[in-house]
Amino acid sequence: MVRLVEISSLNRTSTIRAIIPRCVDAPLWIILTNNPSKVDSMTRSEEIRQLLSLTPEAVREKAGSKLIVIENIDLLYKHFANSVAEEIILNNQKNAPTKLILPVGPVEQYRILAKRVNDENIKLENCWFFMMDEQCDINGATLPCDHPLSFRRVFDEAFMQRVKERHRIPAERVIFPNQENLHRLKDRIANEGGIDTTYGGIGIHGHLAFNEPKPNIRESDPRVVELNEFTRTINAVRSQVGGNLENFPRHGITLGMRQILQAKRVRLYCRNGIILDWANTVLRLAVLGKSGDDYPVTHIRDHADYKIVTDEDTLKQPKFIL
To answer: Is the pLDDT reported for residue 21 higher than 80?
Structure first.
Protein backbone atom coordinates (compact mmCIF):
# COMPACT_ATOMS: atom_id res chain seq x y z
CA MET A 1 0.00 0.00 0.00
CA VAL A 2 1.25 3.48 -0.85
CA ARG A 3 -0.09 6.62 0.78
CA LEU A 4 0.65 10.25 -0.12
CA VAL A 5 0.85 12.70 2.75
CA GLU A 6 1.68 16.40 2.72
CA ILE A 7 4.21 17.40 5.39
CA SER A 8 2.04 20.20 6.73
CA SER A 9 -0.81 17.75 7.39
CA LEU A 10 1.21 15.27 9.44
CA ASN A 11 0.47 14.98 13.15
CA ARG A 12 3.30 16.44 15.17
CA THR A 13 3.67 13.16 17.06
CA SER A 14 4.19 11.19 13.88
CA THR A 15 7.56 9.58 13.41
CA ILE A 16 8.98 9.28 9.93
CA ARG A 17 11.96 7.00 9.75
CA ALA A 18 13.66 8.80 6.94
CA ILE A 19 16.03 11.62 6.29
CA ILE A 20 14.03 14.42 4.70
CA PRO A 21 16.18 16.78 2.61
CA ARG A 22 15.94 20.46 3.46
CA CYS A 23 14.48 22.52 0.67
CA VAL A 24 12.49 25.66 0.05
CA ASP A 25 9.99 24.05 -2.29
CA ALA A 26 6.53 23.48 -0.88
CA PRO A 27 4.69 21.30 -0.38
CA LEU A 28 7.10 18.42 0.23
CA TRP A 29 5.42 15.13 -0.52
CA ILE A 30 6.44 11.93 1.21
CA ILE A 31 5.54 8.52 -0.18
CA LEU A 32 4.85 6.36 2.87
CA THR A 33 4.86 2.59 2.44
CA ASN A 34 4.26 -0.26 4.85
CA ASN A 35 8.02 -0.53 5.08
CA PRO A 36 9.31 2.59 6.88
CA SER A 37 12.79 2.06 5.43
CA LYS A 38 11.46 2.67 1.93
CA VAL A 39 10.65 6.33 1.96
CA ASP A 40 11.00 8.58 -1.04
CA SER A 41 10.46 12.30 -1.26
CA MET A 42 9.67 14.70 -4.08
CA THR A 43 9.44 18.46 -4.07
CA ARG A 44 6.99 20.24 -6.31
CA SER A 45 9.81 21.42 -8.57
CA GLU A 46 11.06 17.85 -8.90
CA GLU A 47 7.56 16.66 -9.68
CA ILE A 48 7.16 19.31 -12.39
CA ARG A 49 10.50 18.31 -13.91
CA GLN A 50 9.33 14.72 -13.98
CA LEU A 51 5.94 15.58 -15.49
CA LEU A 52 7.51 17.71 -18.22
CA SER A 53 9.78 14.82 -19.17
CA LEU A 54 6.72 12.79 -20.18
CA THR A 55 5.87 12.61 -23.86
CA PRO A 56 2.36 13.73 -24.85
CA GLU A 57 1.52 10.08 -25.45
CA ALA A 58 2.62 9.17 -21.93
CA VAL A 59 0.52 11.97 -20.44
CA ARG A 60 -2.54 10.74 -22.34
CA GLU A 61 -1.98 7.19 -21.13
CA LYS A 62 -1.52 8.15 -17.48
CA ALA A 63 -4.46 10.59 -17.46
CA GLY A 64 -6.84 8.19 -19.19
CA SER A 65 -10.42 9.37 -19.60
CA LYS A 66 -9.85 12.43 -17.41
CA LEU A 67 -8.00 14.16 -20.26
CA ILE A 68 -9.60 15.06 -23.60
CA VAL A 69 -7.20 16.26 -26.29
CA ILE A 70 -8.60 18.31 -29.19
CA GLU A 71 -6.65 18.85 -32.39
CA ASN A 72 -6.40 22.64 -32.23
CA ILE A 73 -7.52 25.70 -30.31
CA ASP A 74 -10.46 26.52 -32.60
CA LEU A 75 -11.92 23.05 -32.13
CA LEU A 76 -11.35 23.36 -28.37
CA TYR A 77 -13.53 26.48 -28.27
CA LYS A 78 -16.14 24.68 -30.34
CA HIS A 79 -16.06 21.73 -27.93
CA PHE A 80 -16.58 24.13 -25.01
CA ALA A 81 -19.53 25.85 -26.70
CA ASN A 82 -21.14 22.58 -27.72
CA SER A 83 -20.76 21.11 -24.23
CA VAL A 84 -22.66 24.04 -22.73
CA ALA A 85 -25.28 24.00 -25.48
CA GLU A 86 -25.95 20.27 -25.18
CA GLU A 87 -26.32 20.53 -21.41
CA ILE A 88 -28.90 23.32 -21.77
CA ILE A 89 -30.79 21.46 -24.50
CA LEU A 90 -30.95 18.28 -22.41
CA ASN A 91 -32.26 20.14 -19.37
CA ASN A 92 -34.78 22.05 -21.47
CA GLN A 93 -36.14 18.75 -22.76
CA LYS A 94 -36.67 17.68 -19.15
CA ASN A 95 -38.11 21.08 -18.23
CA ALA A 96 -35.29 21.38 -15.70
CA PRO A 97 -33.15 24.44 -14.92
CA THR A 98 -29.51 24.63 -16.03
CA LYS A 99 -27.22 26.00 -13.32
CA LEU A 100 -23.66 26.66 -14.40
CA ILE A 101 -20.49 28.31 -13.13
CA LEU A 102 -18.83 29.96 -16.12
CA PRO A 103 -15.51 31.74 -16.72
CA VAL A 104 -14.44 34.82 -18.61
CA GLY A 105 -11.24 33.28 -19.87
CA PRO A 106 -11.46 31.49 -22.16
CA VAL A 107 -13.92 33.66 -24.08
CA GLU A 108 -14.07 32.57 -27.74
CA GLN A 109 -16.54 29.78 -26.96
CA TYR A 110 -19.25 32.34 -26.19
CA ARG A 111 -19.38 33.64 -29.75
CA ILE A 112 -19.85 30.08 -30.99
CA LEU A 113 -22.45 29.38 -28.32
CA ALA A 114 -24.39 32.54 -29.18
CA LYS A 115 -24.57 31.53 -32.84
CA ARG A 116 -25.81 28.08 -31.95
CA VAL A 117 -28.43 29.52 -29.57
CA ASN A 118 -29.73 31.76 -32.38
CA ASP A 119 -29.57 29.12 -35.12
CA GLU A 120 -31.23 26.37 -33.11
CA ASN A 121 -33.65 28.49 -31.07
CA ILE A 122 -32.16 27.30 -27.79
CA LYS A 123 -34.09 28.80 -24.90
CA LEU A 124 -32.05 30.25 -22.04
CA GLU A 125 -34.92 31.47 -19.88
CA ASN A 126 -34.49 28.60 -17.41
CA CYS A 127 -30.72 29.00 -17.03
CA TRP A 128 -28.61 30.38 -14.21
CA PHE A 129 -25.11 31.58 -15.07
CA PHE A 130 -22.95 32.17 -12.01
CA MET A 131 -19.82 33.86 -13.34
CA MET A 132 -16.56 32.88 -11.68
CA ASP A 133 -14.97 36.22 -10.92
CA GLU A 134 -14.48 39.88 -11.71
CA GLN A 135 -11.69 42.44 -11.54
CA CYS A 136 -11.97 45.04 -8.80
CA ASP A 137 -10.16 48.04 -7.36
CA ILE A 138 -8.23 48.21 -4.11
CA ASN A 139 -11.44 48.95 -2.19
CA GLY A 140 -13.17 45.80 -3.45
CA ALA A 141 -15.46 47.61 -5.91
CA THR A 142 -15.83 45.90 -9.28
CA LEU A 143 -14.54 47.67 -12.35
CA PRO A 144 -17.23 49.61 -14.25
CA CYS A 145 -18.77 47.84 -17.23
CA ASP A 146 -17.12 50.23 -19.69
CA HIS A 147 -13.63 49.47 -18.34
CA PRO A 148 -11.51 47.56 -20.92
CA LEU A 149 -10.64 44.90 -18.31
CA SER A 150 -14.20 44.40 -17.02
CA PHE A 151 -15.15 40.73 -17.30
CA ARG A 152 -18.81 41.70 -17.55
CA ARG A 153 -18.05 43.91 -20.55
CA VAL A 154 -16.15 41.05 -22.21
CA PHE A 155 -18.99 38.59 -21.59
CA ASP A 156 -21.64 41.04 -22.77
CA GLU A 157 -19.78 41.67 -26.02
CA ALA A 158 -18.90 38.02 -26.65
CA PHE A 159 -22.27 36.51 -25.75
CA MET A 160 -25.16 38.60 -24.39
CA GLN A 161 -25.24 41.16 -27.21
CA ARG A 162 -24.97 38.42 -29.85
CA VAL A 163 -27.97 36.40 -28.68
CA LYS A 164 -31.29 37.40 -30.18
CA GLU A 165 -33.53 39.05 -27.63
CA ARG A 166 -36.18 36.33 -27.71
CA HIS A 167 -33.59 33.71 -26.70
CA ARG A 168 -31.54 35.80 -24.28
CA ILE A 169 -31.05 34.69 -20.69
CA PRO A 170 -32.75 37.14 -18.28
CA ALA A 171 -30.17 39.63 -17.06
CA GLU A 172 -30.91 38.84 -13.41
CA ARG A 173 -29.91 35.23 -14.03
CA VAL A 174 -26.35 36.20 -15.03
CA ILE A 175 -24.65 36.80 -11.73
CA PHE A 176 -21.17 38.26 -11.48
CA PRO A 177 -19.70 38.47 -8.00
CA ASN A 178 -19.58 42.06 -6.77
CA GLN A 179 -19.37 44.05 -3.57
CA GLU A 180 -23.17 43.99 -3.10
CA ASN A 181 -23.85 40.27 -3.56
CA LEU A 182 -20.55 38.87 -2.28
CA HIS A 183 -21.85 37.64 1.06
CA ARG A 184 -25.08 36.23 -0.42
CA LEU A 185 -23.62 34.17 -3.27
CA LYS A 186 -22.94 31.04 -1.27
CA ASP A 187 -26.55 30.85 -0.09
CA ARG A 188 -27.90 31.95 -3.48
CA ILE A 189 -26.26 28.97 -5.16
CA ALA A 190 -27.47 26.63 -2.44
CA ASN A 191 -31.02 27.98 -2.70
CA GLU A 192 -31.08 27.18 -6.43
CA GLY A 193 -30.19 23.57 -5.64
CA GLY A 194 -26.47 23.75 -6.33
CA ILE A 195 -24.46 23.84 -9.54
CA ASP A 196 -24.81 21.29 -12.33
CA THR A 197 -21.44 21.94 -13.99
CA THR A 198 -18.48 24.15 -13.30
CA TYR A 199 -16.82 25.21 -16.55
CA GLY A 200 -13.52 27.04 -16.29
CA GLY A 201 -10.02 27.77 -17.44
CA ILE A 202 -6.84 27.21 -15.45
CA GLY A 203 -4.48 29.98 -14.39
CA ILE A 204 -0.70 29.86 -14.70
CA HIS A 205 -0.31 29.06 -11.00
CA GLY A 206 -3.22 26.64 -10.98
CA HIS A 207 -5.91 29.03 -9.87
CA LEU A 208 -9.57 28.38 -10.67
CA ALA A 209 -11.53 31.63 -10.83
CA PHE A 210 -9.33 33.93 -8.71
CA ASN A 211 -8.60 31.27 -6.11
CA GLU A 212 -4.87 31.87 -5.74
CA PRO A 213 -2.61 29.47 -3.82
CA LYS A 214 -3.39 29.80 -0.11
CA PRO A 215 -3.57 27.39 2.84
CA ASN A 216 -6.91 25.52 2.99
CA ILE A 217 -7.92 27.05 -0.36
CA ARG A 218 -10.36 24.23 -1.14
CA GLU A 219 -12.59 25.38 1.73
CA SER A 220 -12.79 28.98 0.49
CA ASP A 221 -16.05 30.87 -0.20
CA PRO A 222 -16.83 34.06 -2.22
CA ARG A 223 -14.50 36.89 -1.22
CA VAL A 224 -12.21 39.71 -2.33
CA VAL A 225 -8.69 38.47 -3.05
CA GLU A 226 -5.30 39.99 -3.73
CA LEU A 227 -3.92 38.72 -7.03
CA ASN A 228 -0.39 37.37 -6.96
CA GLU A 229 2.28 38.56 -9.34
CA PHE A 230 2.16 35.41 -11.46
CA THR A 231 -1.49 36.03 -12.26
CA ARG A 232 -1.11 39.76 -12.82
CA THR A 233 1.87 39.29 -15.13
CA ILE A 234 0.34 36.68 -17.44
CA ASN A 235 -2.97 38.58 -17.51
CA ALA A 236 -1.16 41.81 -18.42
CA VAL A 237 0.65 39.97 -21.22
CA ARG A 238 -2.66 38.63 -22.58
CA SER A 239 -4.78 41.77 -22.17
CA GLN A 240 -3.31 44.11 -24.79
CA VAL A 241 -2.32 46.72 -22.21
CA GLY A 242 1.29 46.88 -23.29
CA GLY A 243 2.54 45.03 -20.22
CA ASN A 244 1.31 47.83 -17.94
CA LEU A 245 1.78 46.01 -14.63
CA GLU A 246 1.87 49.21 -12.61
CA ASN A 247 -1.79 49.98 -13.31
CA PHE A 248 -3.09 46.44 -13.74
CA PRO A 249 -5.72 45.46 -11.13
CA ARG A 250 -4.26 43.98 -7.97
CA HIS A 251 -7.53 42.62 -6.59
CA GLY A 252 -10.45 40.51 -7.72
CA ILE A 253 -13.77 39.18 -6.47
CA THR A 254 -14.24 35.46 -6.84
CA LEU A 255 -16.40 32.46 -6.10
CA GLY A 256 -14.67 30.11 -3.70
CA MET A 257 -13.16 26.73 -4.41
CA ARG A 258 -15.93 25.26 -2.27
CA GLN A 259 -18.59 26.41 -4.78
CA ILE A 260 -16.48 25.30 -7.75
CA LEU A 261 -15.83 21.82 -6.39
CA GLN A 262 -19.36 21.25 -5.09
CA ALA A 263 -20.72 21.20 -8.65
CA LYS A 264 -21.93 17.82 -9.90
CA ARG A 265 -19.42 18.02 -12.73
CA VAL A 266 -16.21 19.98 -13.35
CA ARG A 267 -15.04 20.65 -16.91
CA LEU A 268 -11.83 22.66 -17.31
CA TYR A 269 -10.39 23.95 -20.58
CA CYS A 270 -6.62 24.44 -20.49
CA ARG A 271 -5.00 26.15 -23.46
CA ASN A 272 -2.19 28.54 -24.29
CA GLY A 273 -4.33 30.61 -26.63
CA ILE A 274 -1.29 32.68 -27.64
CA ILE A 275 2.11 31.82 -29.11
CA LEU A 276 3.66 31.57 -25.63
CA ASP A 277 3.64 28.10 -24.04
CA TRP A 278 2.55 29.38 -20.62
CA ALA A 279 -0.04 26.65 -19.86
CA ASN A 280 1.91 23.48 -20.69
CA THR A 281 3.20 22.97 -17.16
CA VAL A 282 -0.05 23.68 -15.30
CA LEU A 283 -1.89 21.31 -17.65
CA ARG A 284 0.33 18.42 -16.58
CA LEU A 285 -0.01 19.36 -12.94
CA ALA A 286 -3.79 19.56 -13.31
CA VAL A 287 -4.12 16.05 -14.70
CA LEU A 288 -1.26 14.26 -12.94
CA GLY A 289 0.15 16.43 -10.13
CA LYS A 290 -0.22 15.69 -6.43
CA SER A 291 -3.06 17.57 -4.74
CA GLY A 292 -1.91 20.66 -2.86
CA ASP A 293 -2.80 24.25 -1.98
CA ASP A 294 0.19 25.58 -3.94
CA TYR A 295 -1.64 24.71 -7.21
CA PRO A 296 -5.38 24.87 -6.35
CA VAL A 297 -6.48 23.11 -9.56
CA THR A 298 -4.92 19.90 -8.24
CA HIS A 299 -7.76 19.65 -5.71
CA ILE A 300 -10.05 18.46 -8.51
CA ARG A 301 -8.41 15.08 -7.99
CA ASP A 302 -10.94 14.42 -5.22
CA HIS A 303 -13.95 15.25 -7.40
CA ALA A 304 -16.09 12.35 -8.60
CA ASP A 305 -16.68 13.71 -12.12
CA TYR A 306 -14.03 15.97 -13.62
CA LYS A 307 -12.43 16.24 -17.04
CA ILE A 308 -9.77 18.52 -18.47
CA VAL A 309 -9.89 19.46 -22.14
CA THR A 310 -6.80 20.70 -23.95
CA ASP A 311 -5.36 20.99 -27.44
CA GLU A 312 -2.33 19.27 -28.93
CA ASP A 313 -0.22 22.43 -28.72
CA THR A 314 -0.70 22.79 -24.95
CA LEU A 315 0.04 19.09 -24.43
CA LYS A 316 3.49 19.41 -26.03
CA GLN A 317 6.66 19.23 -24.00
CA PRO A 318 8.44 22.58 -23.66
CA LYS A 319 11.63 23.14 -25.64
CA PHE A 320 13.64 23.30 -22.42
CA ILE A 321 13.06 21.42 -19.17
CA LEU A 322 14.65 23.27 -16.28
So the answer is: no
Cα gap 295→292, rounded to integer Å: 6
Sheet holding 98-102, edge to edge: 67-70, 306-311, 265-270, 197-200, 98-102, 127-131, 174-175
Give the global pTM: 0.86
**Strand pairing of 197-200 and 265-270?**
parallel
Find, among 291, 257, 302, the residue nearest to 101 by Cα: 257
Give yes or no for a cis peptide into 148 (omega within 30° of 0).
no
Helix (H) or strand (E) holding 199: strand 197-200
Q: What is the pLDDT of residues 200-239, one digit of tens each?
A: 999 999 999 999 999 999 999 999 999 999 999 988 888 8
Q: Does 322 map to a domain?
A: no
User: Which CATH number fits the domain that encloses residue 156?
Assistant: 3.40.50.1360
Q: 17 with 65, same domain?
A: no
99 pLDDT above the threshold of 80 = yes
Kindly compute the dihedral angle of the four CA atoms of residues 307, 309, 314, 318, in this order, to the nearest 10 degrees: 10
